[in-house]
């Protein structure tokens, strides 16, 4: 009996004593698509409009390539010191800690959790604009396109916040696989609708709008700021380095997790880049210089109104899952740190079982309820103060792109593979990192200028 019990435990537990992982290539692709295809896809037509017909598509392809390089470097750092047989790193910060030390870990944590918090705030903004767009679409359909159909976003932000307070009680990252699959399906749905509406509008217009240099601006300086902001928006739409380890930690092994992650990333990035190019280019081709900042909520499209309503409903459902994808790592970090810091606190560590009629029993923790509720409330409040879609996305993209997607992966690669200074590989990766740093700086400058300008209006 003891041998049988031990055998059963070995089948249920992983190589580190935790619950055995069950993630596959396809669940990994779903997680990646949920993380990558988010609110950023809606701003890509506007970004192409600022950059023009050549620079816009080229910028998207370049960011896709850079993102895959980042994934290749990072996925090999999931285990240390050997990428196949080494000890698992459960989070980005764990990998930075074993490779780069405590100081770099604190810096990484600051960027990572600040960006995750910012993404959740951006998702509150995006959801409110989509919910408002549904009302406006129906209003324009009933009263005509010139009717005064404007609605404030705040009530919709509060509704989304209330939904997230409930869904944030999902225990951990491993428990949201079903939500990621649903969110990935929704992201494909509204991306296809955006592409379809853009293509239909181009056919209806009988021409392809736009130019090589993009939309004109009042001054050269303003044009430069808009180009910088567009680069920040594209940067926001791609990298998912900050949750790569959480996704990789769901994958069963064998095969080695890094091989599955690289294969899943190649498939997911190919699909997302294809959708990005279709949505961005056909959106710009349809509207030219008047391309809205948000393709589906800027109401460049009016009919068929029911299809636009459905697309915006898909966005809302997708962002319900996307919010959890980026908030669960924050929840896990804070709760584990608090439990370790105060191991004897009942408020932090005690769980209580609750059974409701017609529902399975579930466990609650008072600290979890309080902290996660406060987190959701804070993102909702900040979203009501800064409801600027394109500018917020550009700011977040610029802040995340270089430090998390480039700097730390390159530095960890140097350490783990013992790359010596001034070798060919060292020079190439250093140059690559510096160029990406410049892109982040210009994106950050353009987005800050955009927020200041929008706030002063």
UniProtKB/TrEMBL annotation:
Pfam families in alphabetical order: Aa_trans
Compartments (UniProt record): Cell membrane; Endomembrane system
Record key words, sorted: Amino-acid transport, Auxin signaling pathway, Cell membrane, Membrane, Symport, Transmembrane, Transmembrane helix, Transport
Membrane topology: Multi-pass membrane protein
GO cellular component: endomembrane system; plasma membrane
Residue span, Amino acid transporter transmembrane domain: 22-451
InterPro entries referenced in this protein's UniProt entry, alphabetically: AA_transpt_TM (IPR013057)
GO biological process, one term: auxin-activated signaling pathway
Presence of the UniProt keyword Repeat in the record: no
Keyword Secreted applies: no
GO molecular function: symporter activity
Membrane-spanning intervals of the chain: 25-46, 52-74, 178-203, 223-245, 266-285, 369-389, 395-415, 427-448
Main location: membrane
Function: Carrier protein involved in proton-driven auxin influx. Mediates the formation of auxin gradient from developing leaves (site of auxin biosynthesis) to tips by contributing to the loading of auxin in vascular tissues and facilitating acropetal (base to tip) auxin transport within inner tissues of the root apex, and basipetal (tip to base) auxin transport within outer tissues of the root apex. May be involved in lateral roots and nodules formation.
Family, per entry: Belongs to the amino acid/polyamine transporter 2 family. Amino acid/auxin permease (AAAP) (TC 2.A.18.2) subfamily.
Official protein name in the record: Amino acid transporter transmembrane domain-containing protein
Organism expressing this protein natively: Populus trichocarpa
């Amino acid at each position: 009996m003891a041998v049988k019990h031990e055998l059963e435990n070995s089948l249920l537990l992983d190589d580190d004593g935790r619950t055995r992982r069950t993630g596959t290539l396809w669940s990994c692709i779903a997680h990646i698509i949920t993380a990558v295809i988010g609110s950023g896809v809606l701003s890509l037509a506007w970004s192409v409009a600022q950059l023009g017909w050549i620079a816009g598509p080229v910028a998207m392809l370049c960011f896709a390539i850079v993102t895959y390089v980042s994934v290749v470097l990072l996925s090999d750092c999931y285990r240390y010191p050997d990428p196949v047989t080494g000890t698992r790193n459960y989070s980005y910060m764990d990998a930075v800690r074993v490779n780069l030390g405590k100081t770099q870990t604190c810096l990484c944590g600051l960027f990572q959790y600040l960006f995750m918090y910012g993404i959740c705030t951006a998702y509150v903004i995006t959801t409110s604009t989509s919910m408002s767009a549904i009302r406006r679409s129906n209003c324009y359909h009933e009263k005509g396109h010139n009717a005064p159909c404007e609605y404030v976003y705040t009530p919709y932000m509060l509704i989304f916040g209330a939904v997230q307070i409930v869904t944030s009680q999902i225990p951990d990252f491993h428990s949201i696989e079903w939500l990621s699959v649903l969110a990935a399906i929704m992201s494909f749905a509204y991306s296809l609708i955006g592409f379809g509406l853009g293509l239909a509008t181009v056919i209806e217009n009988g021409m392809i709008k736009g130019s090589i240099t993009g939309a004109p601006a009042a001054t050269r300086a303003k044009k430069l700021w808009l180009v910088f902001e567009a680069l920040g928006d594209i940067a926001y739409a791609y990298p998912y380095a900050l949750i790569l380890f959480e996704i990789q930690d769901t994958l069963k092994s064998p095969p080695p997790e890094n091989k599955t992650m690289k294969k899943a990333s190649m498939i997911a990035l190919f699909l997302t880049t294809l959708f990005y190019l279709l949505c961005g280019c056909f959106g710009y081709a349809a509207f030219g210089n008047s391309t809205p900042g948000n393709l589906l909520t800027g109401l460049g499209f009016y009919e068929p109104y029911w299809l636009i309503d459905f697309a915006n409903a898909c966005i809302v459902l997708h962002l319900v899952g996307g919010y959890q994808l980026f908030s669960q790592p924050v929840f896990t970090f804070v709760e584990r740190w608090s439990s370790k810091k105060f191991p004897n606190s009942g408020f932090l560590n005690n769980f209580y079982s609750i059974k409701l009629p017609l529902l399975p029993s579930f466990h609650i923790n008072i600290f979890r309820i309080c902290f996660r509720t406060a987190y959701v409330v804070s993102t909702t409040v900040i979203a009501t103060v800064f409801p600027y879609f394109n500018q917020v996305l550009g700011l977040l993209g610029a802040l995340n792109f270089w430090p998390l997607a480039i700097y730390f992966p390159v530095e960890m690669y140097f350490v783990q593979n013992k790359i010596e200074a001034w070798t060919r590989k060292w020079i190439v990766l250093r140059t690559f990192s510096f160029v990406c740093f410049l892109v982040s700086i210009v994106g950050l400058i353009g987005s800050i200028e955009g927020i200041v300008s929008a706030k002063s209006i």
